[in-house]
Structure formats: structure tokens, C-alpha cells
Amino acid sequence: MRTERLMSSCFAEFYEELARIKQAVAGGRLASYLGGKNSGPDLAASTGARLLALLATQEQRVGASANHMELKAYGLARYFMAALADEILGVNLNWEGSDYWNDHLIERALFQRAVAGRDFYLLADRVLHSRGNNPVMADLAAVALMCMQLGFQGQYRGKTGAEARERYRKKLLHFIGVGADVHSAGGNSKPLFPSAYAGLISETTESRLAPFSRWYLLGLGVVFMYLILSTGVWVYNIRDLTSVVPYQGVFDLFTP
Asked: How far apart are CA 68 and CA 240, in angstroms?
């Protein structure tokens, strides 16, 4: 599984499965899709097992071709993906398994912890404070951004956290190269790609239980936007193992 944008490609695959699950919920056919029983506990268990199986298969493919830094970054990308899945399935989505999802958290299964509401932003900060122009780190920042665009709020949930969420989104956009340098003279930076901002979710119009079609189209739109822009924004090559040193602090908490 060797692609130009490894982390975002893995995210797109993972979110595609989440979108299918949401579609099955909306159509009242989740049990049929999962091939299991229709009770809440069974649906939660089957959904968790399906997502974990996808991530396990994905990890094997990544491990077969990724370099050392990409493997480290993928471990962190999996944390971002786990945080998104747990918030969608445990908080955002009205479905039969939501009350039982705490027993099947992806974060706990993979990382033996359940603090993504806080640590998602802690790790996003570490990515944002990494130095140098490195496509792996930019790709990782894009995964964090897409998770936020697709529903993750964590400790900044609700109206009281709207300003903080918007601040993170803007920082991540700048970091991946969609916007101008955050520290440009006078602070009057303008986005290099203004149309990219059109895809941002409006906090005032976003509903907690959005229809599936909106989630699906939004997910495809954000991923598609990023994959297209990334081909023109980054021209750097993946560096060898010596380039890992400045970024080691980002990965201290999690190792795949």
C-alpha cells in the first residue's frame, strides 16, 4: 500500500467503512450489513470488530511498504481515526449500539486508553509544532483536520468549544499548505486556495444528527479536496531515517 499520501489514503479507506455503517443505520439494515444479531449490544460488538479488522488489515499493508517514520505516523493516524469513530458511534449517531459503545471503544482496543477527547488535541498540537517541511507530517495534519471536519469535537464539544475548534481547523489548514504562513508579516495571511474553505462545516448550521447523504458527500468532498490539493502543494521527497530525529517528540505517546 504505497501511495503519495499514505496517511490520508488510509483515512479515506477507514471513513468509507464508517460511511457504509452510517448508511446501513439510516436504512435500518445494520444487522444485515454486519451479518449478525439485531440487539444493541450485538450491533456494537459487531461494528467494533469490523472496524478493528479493517485497521488490522490496513496496518499489515502499511507495514509491508512504509519506512520507519511512516510507520510511526500511521500509529498516530490510527489514533485520530479511532477518536473519530468512537465519537461518531458513541455520541453523534443515533443508533441501537450507541449506549453500548463504551464497551467497544476503538481507542481502548488499540491503545488501552479512553481519553481521546483530550489527547486528540494534545497530539494535534505536537504535529503543529513539529519543525521543517515534511510531507509525512503534513499528511498527518490533514488526517486530523478531516477528523474534525467529519464530526470530532472532543473536549471542545458544543457551542462553548466552537472557537477552539475553529482555531485548530485554521492552524491545520495552514500547516498542510492550504493557507499562507500563519506567521506572515502583519498577520494578514490569505489562503492560497480560497475555495478550500468553502467545504468547512458551518458551526451554526451543523445538526447533531445530520442525514447520511450530507455526511457521505462531506466526507468524499473533504478527502477529495485534500488529495487533489496535496499533489500540487508538496514537492518534497520522503527523507531517510536521519530525518526522523526532529519529529520524534510527536510520537512519544504511541508506537505502532
From this structure: 9
